[in-house]
Amino acid sequence: MIKLSPVKPISTTRCKLKMRQSLQRYLQGWWGSYLKYIHRTMVIPIQQDDSDVSYWRELSFVKIIAYLLPISLLAFIPRIVFGLLDHQFFLPIFDLIFYIILCSVLLFKPLAAGIKRIFVMIMLYLFAITLLFIQGVAGPGIHYLTCTCIFAVFLFKGNKIYYSFLANVIIVFGIAVLIYLEPFRFPLQQHFNTLSWLNYSSNLLFINLVCLVLIQRVIQRLEKIIIQESELQGQLADEILEREFLVNKLQESEDYYRYLFSSNPIPMWVYDSNTLCFLQVNDAAIKHYGFSRQEFLDMTIDKIYPTKDLETLYKNIKATLEGNLDFKGIAIHVKKNRNVFPVEIRSNPIEVNGKVGRLVLATDITERTRYVNNIEEQNKRLKHIAWIQSHKVRAPLARVMSLSDLLSRQLPAEEKEDILKYLIISTQELNEIVTSIIKQAEAE
Length: 444
What we know:
By secondary structure, the chain is an alpha+beta fold.
């Protein structure tokens, strides 16, 4: 018989999964609250400009402290427990006092971050020196001394980091002097004499210096990358703002010219220079020509020209298309009801949705043409009146002047009567001409 393995209930699996998720959310929430508390305590803003190098250095110090405190606690607890079990009370008490003082100073909010960094370095040096004198090379003191020098790279900038290396050199040579003078007994004297200690410690100092230089170069390179990235982000932000500004201006300009096109009281349209199809028309063109917008868009511009003018139209279109020139001229257009009227055409090249077209302004000059024709006809009549004045009026006026001159002379009575008779006839003729001119002028 085949034995089937027991299957775990689905409810148990889901329960474990929910418990794991709840524990994970609890730990994440606790860790997030702890980090925020460390940020507030270290007087570092939670949100700041990520491109600021000083902010990154401050943030690295906060992160180091945030991870150092719980990790140090995990390291100190076994040391305290095992020290008490081994009946060594000084080191457990020293470790406990050191940890309490370190936490108290670091979590003391009124204290400036710079003072806290210096305090951390001093405490680490004291801790390392104490362990060296109590446990010698068997304890972690020499490692703390090395790590403290490297730790300074993340806390300070510039040449200040080499002060820690100088402090290590002073400590090493100080221990060498104590080994040589032997003012008191300590474990290092059992393993080293002065020369062997200098030989041993010189290697550590060399490693310290190499690590300092390499880590500093890496951090400087990271700082340059951060600065360059910040500059690029600033340039990108400026370009984005400039582009948005230009797009807005372009949109405003487009809306403005679209408004001018659509609301212009003069008929306007845009047509394709290659197909002659209407692409856009304004409301004035629709109203003036009688075609609907869709009728305009379904036909070509030659449909609004008389058949006899099509050859001239095609020549003008070809000439403007080849030279990409502006055009101005007079033409005859046809409305939907087949009425013709004169227009003044102004057009210029334009690109619409990737198509080469022309923007046309067609001004109805019917009234202007009628006015000009009336002026010309009136001028003709005035010229006729002027001709009458210069020819018909001159003859009787010359006779009147001559007869008047004769009357002023000493002549017989019979001759004066004849001259007076002719003078009356000439004045009547002159009066008839003047009356005719006046009637003709009043008729105009």
